[in-house]
């Protein structure tokens, strides 16, 4: 049975920031970034057991963008909770402030 994906509001904000930034660089690039995020989220539906980076937080890097999806897994509810879609070029202390 596939996992459901729940995207927290802060993660949605991260995604929108990425879309906006890439669209400023080149029109249409934000759409490509969003497609890449959706493709990786779809992977999590069938196999969310990517590496644990710290505590219980798993991370899945995007292959063509410097972003990493930070998420936890609720196995009992078959749910993946996305907490951030974080730009890996940013200061990691920003992520720690979210906890």
Short description:
Helix content is 41%, strand content 29%. It has three helices and five strands, in the order E-H-H-E-E-E-E-H.
Q: What this model shows, in words?
A:
The chain contains three helices and five strands, in the order E-H-H-E-E-E-E-H. The protein is an alpha+beta fold. It has a single domain, classed as RelE-like (YaeB-like fold, 2-Layer Sandwich), CATH 3.30.2310.20. Strands 1-5-4-3-2 form a five-stranded mixed beta sheet. It is globular, with a radius of gyration of 13 Å.
Comma- or semicolon-separated keywords:
99 residues, alpha+beta, YaeB-like fold, five-stranded mixed beta sheet, 3 helices, 29% strand
Compile the SSE list and pairings:
Elements: E1 4-7, H1 9-25, H2 29-46, E2 52-54, E3 57-61, E4 67-74, E5 79-87, H3 93-98
Parallel strand pairs: 1-5
Antiparallel strand pairs: 2-3, 3-4, 4-5
Helix pairs in contact: 1-2
Low-confidence stretches: none
Assigned CATH architecture:
2-Layer Sandwich
- What is the straight-line distance between the termini? 30 Å
Shape: globular
Number-wise, the strands total 5
CATH class: Alpha Beta
* Element pattern in H and E: EHHEEEEH
């Amino acid at each position: 049975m596939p996992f459901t994906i729940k995207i927290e509001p802060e993660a949605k904000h991260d995604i929108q920031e990425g879309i906006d930034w890439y669209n400023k660089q080149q029109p249409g690039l934000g759409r490509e970034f969003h497609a890449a995020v959706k493709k990786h989220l779809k992977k999590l539906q069938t196999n969310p057991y990517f590496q644990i980076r710290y505590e219980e937080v798993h991370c899945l890097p995007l292959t063509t963008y410097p972003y990493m999806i930070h998420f936890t897994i609720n196995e009992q509810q078959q749910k993946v909770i996305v907490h951030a879609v974080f730009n890996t070029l940013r200061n990691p202390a920003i992520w720690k402030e979210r906890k």
